[in-house]
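Predict the 3D structure for this chain.
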Amino acid sequence: MKKSLFYFLVLLEASSLFAQIQDKALVKEQYSVNQLKPYVTLTNNSEFSKRKKLAILLPFNLVVIDADTINTLPMRLKKDKFLNMTLDFYSGALIAIDSAKIIGIPVDVSVFDSQESKLTSNVLNVIIKNELQDSDAIIGPFYQNNIENASDLLIGQNVPIISPLSKDLGNPFPNLYKSIPSNETLKSAMFDFMLKKEGNIIAVVDKKKESARQYLQLFQKNVRFAALNENGSLSVESLKSLFVKGKINYVVLETSNTGMIKWTMQTMINAMANYKVQLVILEPNETLDTDEINFDNLTKLNLMYPSITRENDSYGAQIFVKEYKKKNKIEPTNYAYRGFDLTFDTLMRLAQDNKYQETADSYATEQIINRFEYYKNEVGSYINNGIYILYYDTDFQIKEAR
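Done. Predicted structure below.
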């Protein structure tokens, strides 16, 4: 651990942040999570391979913090969402590092301040100064343009650069691994699932969702569209006429209009006596979370959607939450889960006899709430296709569709 980062940790503790911001702070000490071993999904029967190096580049931006004469560190942490996200990711990564040590994974991990923002970055200097071209893998930096610059710099050494958070497809690099599935990948996975089930796919798309209509027309040729009335409302008769007996009728909803959502759902519920129907969305829809939409109806229709993460209340997941809360006095956020899952997945891949690239070509893994299933796309970059298809069950639980 670099001196500046250690100073940052000491500074956090010295400023009594645990008391001032409800114990949300950067973890100083690594701690044991012996019972996380169920998440070891990528091991050899033989001993682990030779010792390897992992570098993690995180945007702590210590120079900016030190130069801030207006905001104290506690004040900054209270209002700086990006810094909080970074710390959450880091706290999860620390647990993964400690867990890897417990099971004897021979990987040396170094953490560096990438000093990056949307407009500025010190990433390349950090890589050169610390000779990270000798790393077996690098997690980070966070921003897409900085990820691409790092990939370009180390393309000759074929050092794997693992993008932790960016969803952008960006420019292709053979040593770049996009660990977050893109929105396009999520949509494709949803349609692949429905087609595999030999479903009848119907789309309800309002006039304000022209881009969604164009996407379906261009890339999902099997979709049939419910007609709209002249005033833009849903033609209930048109939707009913598209239902097919003997198949599950998937209705893909592309609208934020409360009235159209209600009419679509009611039409589907009325048809349940004669048809198998299921409601589908391709991306989060805030209208469905409002009081105007009956949640019971969403469960009746088994609302289904693609997701980067899953619900996990298994014993192993509960152990993680318990240990995280014990150390941090708060529940882990999705960024903390992400920090653990991505770091542990990377450590497990580096522990193999093969290179990281070879494990990406051969292995899919599943951690606490994230799945990692890399494939090389047509332009040469590695994309994570580890996507969950989730649905609301009638017992009000979110489950994975099979």
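The first strand starts at residue 52 and ends at 58.
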